């Protein structure tokens, strides 16, 4: 029993080393959102002016960090996590694990923890460097921010796992992941800020997982309580994603 308990730690170390060998995953999940935050925040003067729709906060204080955190979480949830799991299933890694004391569920757990840690690291780096370089204040409602981040991450990872559950191979999951991620980024307000959306599109955004997550992040960063609607929407999508992944996920 003791030796079996050591397996997840060893597996986590092994998977972490493999992750480091894929620099593109770290680049798109961590480096790109951080670089965009700093470059756009420094290069666009309007981002550093108070905005009425943010209660007097600057876009660089609330909207821009919220969108870059959303970008990081979606990149990890729809590009990195599903691709690794489907590739392991395709190569028979999960099937072979079922014949050892290590169960396939351990691989799933390690991948979830590893990718969640990457998204959390990206978020911490954006908050720290945004504060040091752009004078962005730290979240004024830290507990609310952590709660929104965790709920949003669970939502996106749940949908990402559902995608991994139904994708037949690694080539398909990469294309479908991108096909899901980019519309969600649009609905989340990354390409077109939600205040500029027409009413019907903003309503669609409200009920999308990315729209609810992005707006809730922006709200707590602007020192406002997140909307109950957005919290309920995220919880509903998280439940659906996890239920679908549990129902359809195949180890081989």
TrEMBL record:
One of its GO terms (biological process) is response to antibiotic. InterPro entries: ABC-2_transporter, ABC2_TM, ABC2_TM_bact-type, ABC_2_transport. The chain crosses the membrane at residues 24-44, 64-88, 108-134, 140-165, 172-192, 228-249. It is a multi-pass membrane protein. PROSITE patterns: ABC_TM2 (PS51012). GO terms for cellular component: ATP-binding cassette (ABC) transporter complex. Residues 24-252 form the ABC transmembrane type-2 domain. GO terms for molecular function: ABC-type transporter activity. It is found in: Cell membrane; Membrane. Its main location: membrane. Keywords: Antibiotic resistance, Cell membrane, Membrane, Transmembrane, Transmembrane helix, Transport. Belongs to the ABC-2 integral membrane protein family. This is Transport permease protein.
